[in-house]
């Protein structure tokens, strides 16, 4: 793509004045770098991804409020983690973290275990236990 034809479409990146570095050809046909604010297909894909993440967060919050899941599920979604990533952050086997997703099991966790989750989510134990019900 020629440098002067690099897309400069409005995107979620432009809200924060972020530009992406791309390779393009200059007037002599040599490769060079240039900045782009975005292009429509990427903007659509990014927007769809953000919408999906927001839906997952809302679903997780509702599960916690309904007593179907522990707050760990909600904070995991807020922090864009999956079971494998969270397991590595807290240092527990995946099956054990999954077990902590149950509200009845979560209610019996010690402060030592809760602190590991709180550290992973960068919240206090009190926020981990109570912030969703407010």
TrEMBL record:
The HTH cro/C1-type domain, residue ranges: 107-128
Alphabetical keyword list: Coiled coil
InterPro entries: Cro/C1-type_HTH
Any coiled-coil regions, as ranges: 43-70
Protein name per UniProt: HTH cro/C1-type domain-containing protein
């Amino acid at each position: 793509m020629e440098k002067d034809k690099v897309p400069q479409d409005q995107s979620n990146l432009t809200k924060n004045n972020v530009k992406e570095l791309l390779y393009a050809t200059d007037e002599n046909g040599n490769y060079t770098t240039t900045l782009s604010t975005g292009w429509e297909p990427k903007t659509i894909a990014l927007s769809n991804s953000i919408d999906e993440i927001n839906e997952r967060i809302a679903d997780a919050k509702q599960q916690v409020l309904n007593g179907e899941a522990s707050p760990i599920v909600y904070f995991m979604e807020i922090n864009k983690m999956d079971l494998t990533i969270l397991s590595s952050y807290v240092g527990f086997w995946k099956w054990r973290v999954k077990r902590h997703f149950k509200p009845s099991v979560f209610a019996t966790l010690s402060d030592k275990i809760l602190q590991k989750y709180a550290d992973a989510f960068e919240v206090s134990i009190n926020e981990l236990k109570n912030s969703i019900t407010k």
